[in-house]
Structures are given as C-alpha cells and as structure tokens.
Amino acid sequence: METDANITAAMFAAYLICRTKAYLTVHGEKPPDPVFAEMRNRVSAAYKALARRRLLTGSTVPIDFSRLTDGVIGDGGTAFVDCETALYVIDGTSSASLDHRASRAGSDRPYVPILYSAWEKSDQSDDLLVCFGALAIAQATGAEIPPNGKVVYGGGCRTKTIRIPEHLPKTRQIVQEIASTCFSREEPRLVLNEHCPTCDFQSRCRALAVERDDLSLLGTMTAKERVKCQEKGISTITHLSYGYRPRRRRKRTKTSPVQSGKPSKNDHKLKALAIKKA
To answer: What residue ranges in the chain does DSSP mark as E strands?
Structure first.
C-alpha cells in the first residue's frame, strides 16, 4: 500500500458497486468516454441546488469537507458537511496532522454528514457513504464520530436520518478492503455486474472479459453459481459450454402431460454455448 493514501468519497462509492471501478479510480485511470460521470455530476449539482433552496438557509448550508482542515470554520451551531467531498487519510502521520490543524478550527462544534441523492429511493449504499463521511469528519476534527447523519433524496427532497453506529462496522470493513485491495499493484479480479451498462469503463472491462472468456459475461449467473463452477474447474465460457446436453424428448402418453423438451430459461450452459458460437 502506498504511504499517505487518501480515500475519497468517489472511491468509496465506486467500491460499493464494483471493485475494479474503485481500483481504476484510485490509480487515476481515465475512462474512454466519461459521459455517465459527467451526467451524474450535472444531476447531482442541480439536485443539491434545488434541495438547498427548499430545505436549507443561512448557517445550515452544507460546507465542503476541505474547510474542516483549512481551519476556516468559525464558531456557531451545527455544521452540515457534504459527504461527497469527504476524504479519509489512511496514513497515520497525515491523520495526526489533520487532527492538529482541525483542532484550531474548533473541534467542539457539532458536525452532521449530509448526502444528496436525486433518486427516488435511498438504499444501503447511501447509508454507508454517510457513515464514511462521519468517519472522515471525526478524523479531520479530532472529535467524536457524529452519532447521526442525513440523506436528502427524491423529487420531494425527503429527509432520512442515518444512525451512524449501526453502519460503523461495515463502513470500517470497506475502508480496510479499499486500503488493501485498491492501493495494491495487482488489479482485483474483473467481474461484470448489473452496474456495467451505466459505467464509463464498460467498454474497457467488457473487452477484457471477452478476451478472458470470463464467466461474468453470463449476466444471469450469480456470484455463488460462479464459485461453484470454479470449484469444479470450470473457469471460462468455453469450459461451461462443453457441459450442455440437449434434453431428450419423452414419448407422449395419454396420461402424461406434453413434454416440450424446451431448455430451462436460465440454462447457463446453453447461454455459454450461444456466446461461444456468436
């Protein structure tokens, strides 16, 4: 792992959906066509502006995380911190430096991590990102981890309170996984998933999956099913396709129902054969 390794909110969010995307983000690889990232940034900026106009005024306007370490936060009431700007430092020396600088900004001031999501539903990934923001705030200010955070989501700007202690174990686990996986020289195993169609690295990863004849090309195959195949020595689409055997038609009798002989809808071996012959 590199020294003075910083985990940004973007890296953390990327890891929640794909380890490969997080690894590429950590190592600064640029996507071939960042159309989805640019679209998400525009939607996020527009939604934040809308939510702030509807819900927040005056001193409650969220601040950028960098202001915590710059020592420019004055005394006052509760300070809301934008989770999308959060930064967690893995290296202990740098962390101590941040704590020292933040103490001059007034670590006794209560902070609340807040996340804006334009989507109509708020899921666990939002909760974990808010908890990540809470960890980063505690590290940067030298204060206790904030007990609660908030998610503002949907067209109606609904607000959900996140209880940070409930998500701390999982969040710390993910931070450690990012530190050990994404900052190493070896890229994690490539696995295509349901998020690929909206990822800027889709063309890169799919080309590699095709080149490696990877089992994740079968979108309906679950992770557990892939593991079972690998335990049997089946590691590629080609290997799996050899296992396909057409069903034999049974003779129709007066008492037995009609046997169509059609393959199962989720017959992975048949789909592997189709990919192989494509």
So the answer is: 6-8, 79-82, 87-89, 111-117, 148-153, 158-163
Would you kindly state where each structural domain of the chain is located, as residue ranges?
6-181, 196-246+262-277
Contact (CB, 8 A) for 65 and 89: no
Between strands 87-89 and 6-8, the pairing is antiparallel
97-152, pLDDT tens digit by residue? 444 444 444 456 689 999 999 999 999 999 999 999 999 999 998 889 999 999 99
Between β-strands 148-153 and 111-117, what pairing exists: parallel, antiparallel or unpaired?
parallel
Distance (Å, whole) CA 68 – CA 111? 10
How many whole angstroms separate alpha carbon 43 and alpha carbon 96? 36
Sign (positive/negative) of CA torsion 52, 54, 55, 60? positive
Is the model's pLDDT at 239 over the cut of 60? yes
- Helical segments of 118-254, H only: 124-141, 164-181, 202-212, 223-231, 237-241
Closest CA to 148 of 54, 80, 88, 84: 80
| pLDDT classification of 256: cutoffs 50, 70, 90 | low
What whole-number distance in Å separates Cα of residue 21 and Cα of residue 19?
5
d(CA 26, CA 181): 10
Burial of 57: CB neighbours in 10 Å, binned 0-12, 13-18, 19+: exposed
Judge whether 164 and 134 are in contact, CB under 8 Å: yes
